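Box 3.1. Reading complex inputs
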Amino acid sequence: MANGSEIKEEMGPCGERPAGAEGPEYERLKAELSREHELYLRTLADFDNYRRRVERERATSAHAGKRELVIPLLEVLADFDRALEHLGDVPEWMSSGFVAIYKRLTSSLQAQGIVPFESLGNRFDPVRHEAVGLTESEDAEPGTVVAELSRGYCWGDEVLRPARVRVAQ
Amino acid sequence: MAKAVGIDLGTTNSVVAVMEGGKATVIINSDGGRLTPSVVAYSKTGERLVGQLAKRQAAINPEQTIYSAKRFVGRRYSEVQSEIKNVPYRVTAGPNDAVRFEIAGKQIAPEEISASVLRKLADDASKYIGEKVTDAIITVPAYFNDAQRQATKDAGKIAGLKVLRIINEPTAAALAYGLDKKGNETIMVFDLGGGTFDVSILEVGDGVFEVKSTSGDTHLGGDDFDKRIVDWLAQEFLRDQGIELRKDRQSLQRLTEAAEKAKVELSSVVETSISLPFITADAAGPKHLEMKLARAKFDQLTADLVERCVGPVKQALLDAKLGERDIDEVVLVGGSTRTPAVQALVRRLIAGKEPNQSVNPDEVVAIGAAIQAGVLAGDVKDVVLLDVTPLSLGVETLGGVMTKLVERNTTIPVKRSEVFSTAEENQTAVDIHIMQGERELARDNRTLGHFRLEGIRPAQRGLPQIEVTFDIDTNGILTVKARDKETDKAQEITISGSTQLSRDEIDRMVADAKGHAEEDKRRHEEVEARNAANSVAYQAERQVKALDGSVPLNEKARAEQLIADIRQSTKSEPADIARLRRLTSDLQQLVYGLESASHGSAAGGPQGKPPGADDVIDAEFRPSK
């Protein structure tokens, strides 16, 4: 069987190898080809996954843009909730106007599908609740929410802002 | 195909990144965040929670919520006495003096906690990239000893990951900036995270990093800066209102959040306002907190914290037997290095050198780890070679405009084609003038080559379809081909120097285009207005000729007058764009009028398109000279 160097000489720059011929150069090229092919497949796979993710992200990018705007607004809404607790201290014309503004704000969020969820009396769930602390309670079962310090909001299946809660000990 | 990720397993937060198409990308976790809290909790029901969810329930389950596990990993129980004092969960001694956390009567090793965090990161990464993640590179502080490194590796194994390598955090940060490729250098990595401060001095040569020295403060970080703002706000409020806000958990939480937000804002503005309405109430009614915090005041509140970084930096230099001038590069790591006072301190300590901070300091370690993972998995070395065209490439079209086919910074190899047409009646040849540059007009750009495509069948202007293709191969060699779609006649040219410009030349050309943007835009508009005017005048002429006899004399005279006006206007230099547009629009209206009148007389025939309005034509070549 011919060795590699002889074969090299037999071949022109684009020469064809006789069928079945082998040698170090042939092996090297074969290995290189399989490495390159592997790399090519990897890049294709990378690109395919990337393309799919970009498509997915494009579909959700409008959602993401809204979320960026809405989450800080929910903080303001929590301030509103705190203010509502003190409405008895102001004249009626003021409090009714204030409530009207609050309603407009919440209904425009609701129109976008952003709605508060109930937490009081439910079992503490870290997906929907953020615990501020424990409270002794006679009648509530341990692990249930006994006080809601700020409301939680969801948007479809997504929890936009967990409720801040106190939990029965 | 298995993917390898880079994981920055931090004391407070962890980050995971992956190489994708030759670039490191930080992975968004299942909660939508880029940082995952390094927190693991065991709920009363035996459920295990990791990350954000574990953090949310920490206040009601402090004894079974483990954070800062990194402070315990791979250490002996007898070594960690001072750390135990700082945490609310139970730490006990296991076999061979090993550290164990005691949770509901069970002993859990710090490695298991780290493993839970690693598992979540790998799962989130798999979901994000749509491919199973099996291999990882995990980073550890440079000062970690063998036992701590081994324990971290074990954590990876428990998580079901193949740990390709454990690398130093400062090394990863330097890799993210490509400092391994810069030859022999001395690098200082300044890492001020959420709760720890590390400074490391590295030496790199032939792509190999050597840690010369490390120093730091295991209890100094961004949380301390937040606390200074909280204390200041609370004290001011106490003085004005007589109420201590820190006693109420809910108020304290709101104060802490507001403080962190203010700190972040003060990195980009010099004053910020903190507003917490209805923060508390007394007999007189509700109280609001409304304060302004200037950066100068913030710097004053935190001056001693910033100053605490000085000692470790000096110590690290001393241990490495180096002076401040021996440091070639400084890399900033950790969110707290965004604080202007910290950056000023770094510059002061390292002889005014500008630190590397273009990569997000929260993510730089994970990015470096991902790059290393890519190298080990074999996908970096080759993919990184993907190049881009430094300048736009295109051809000259009617009116001396450059029409770009390949925009600058397009990744190569790339192939783009566009269909053009002729600008004159019976034009039988087109000149393809290949250009490179960012300016609007051909004459301001660089010519790469010329060729001529002949043998186009004589036809009305705008009818022939000439497809021009730009093909750049991986070596940056450009082949331009023009083909007449009707006759299939083609001509091509190969240009090899299209990417071989020096960096300076490219920068100059790009800057030049920016500098002339306004002027170029106006000139481009002028050319467009002229082209549009000529095209409408041409259509009108044909229309009038075609409908000869059926056109009312006054309309014909008006059309002729407008055509003459347009011909005159297009010749003036510079062109009066507004006047040209007005004339063009008037003539266009007239042409439409003529058309519908003629169609009307032809008893409702199909609505015709003005000639030359074929959709495929993007631009026209000027006639071949």
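In summary: Chain A touches chain B at residues 39, 41-43, 45-47, 49-50, 52-53, 79, 82-83, 85-86, 89, 124, 126-127, 129-134, 143, 149, 162, 164, 167 (CB under 8 Å).
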